[in-house]
Design brief:
With 204 residues, this protein is mainly β. The protein folds into two domains: 85 residues, no CATH class; 104 residues, Elongation Factor Tu (Ef-tu), domain 3 (Beta Barrel). 2% of the residues lie in helices and 55% in strands. The chain is built from one helix and 14 strands; from the N terminus they run βββββββββββαβββ. The strands form two sheets. A seven-stranded antiparallel sheet has the order 9-1-12-13-14-11-10, with no helix packed on it. Strands 5-4-8-2-3-7-6 form a seven-stranded antiparallel sheet, with no helix packed on it. Strand 2 and strand 3 form a beta hairpin. The longest helix is centred in the C-terminal third of the chain and has 4 residues. The chain is globular and about 65 Å long.
């Protein structure tokens, strides 16, 4: 399988994007665009969700209490199933992503903070799981000072393990480090490190 890593740019508007029902456990509850570029939405901007019961002749605004939005996967999730004849569309902002063309390796690390609940006199340590955290690193052949200049910037990062089927992981992360390595008679290499902001989702 071919892997890759992508990084976000400035969000752009999309209008009246028709969404397709996903093959979920409960049919006709989750809807997503079939166009790859519209599968990541900007959570800082409002999304208008509309439906049509007459094959797209007229469209009506859906009450926001009837659904939730998974912004990282551009998915509208209804609390109850729609009729199969109902069409759904959305208007909002998507997050464009660009291939890190010179990347040759990426690494995702996820951790759970384990909190001790061990009692006095216990002979075994007991713990409960606390907050989760993650870090992302990709390595590339150096080409310019982009990541040096933008240190401390928040990006959306898409890490694919299977390009053909868009499978992998997606997360927002703050760039915390940029390391450039120069060795005699070798190409210049760069490591870029991020601390995950909020959560990591699996792409499937």
């Amino acid at each position: 399988m071919s892997a890759s890593v992508y990084i976000s740019g400035t969000s752009l508007a999309f209008t009246y994007q028709v969404l397709t029902p996903l093959a979920t456990l409960v049919p006709y509850t989750s809807y997503q665009s079939t166009t790859l570029m519209y599968k990541i939405w900007d959570s800082t901007d409002a999304v208008l969700v509309e439906n049509s019961t007459d094959s797209g002749v007229t469209w009506n605004t859906v009450n926001a209490s009837l659904y939730t939005i998974d912004y990282l996967q551009g998915t509208v999730i209804f609390g109850s199933a729609n009729l199969s004849s109902v069409e759904v569309r959305a208007t909002g902002y998507y997050v464009p992503i660009s291939l890190v063309a010179n990347a040759y390796e990426w690494d995702l690390s996820i951790d759970a903070n384990l909190i001790s609940t061990t009692l006095l006199g216990a002979t075994w340590k007991s713990q409960v799981s606390g907050l989760k955290s993650g870090t992302v690193k990709f390595s590339q052949y150096w080409q310019d000072n982009f990541y040096f200049t933008n240190l401390g910037t928040r990006y959306l990062i898409v890490m694919l393990v299977d390009n053909a089927n868009y499978k992998g992981y997606i997360a927002y992360g703050w760039q915390k480090n940029d390391s450039v390595n120069v060795v005699n008679d070798d190409v210049i290499k760069e490591d870029v490190n991020f601390d995950v902001d909020n959560s990591i989702e699996a792409l499937y």
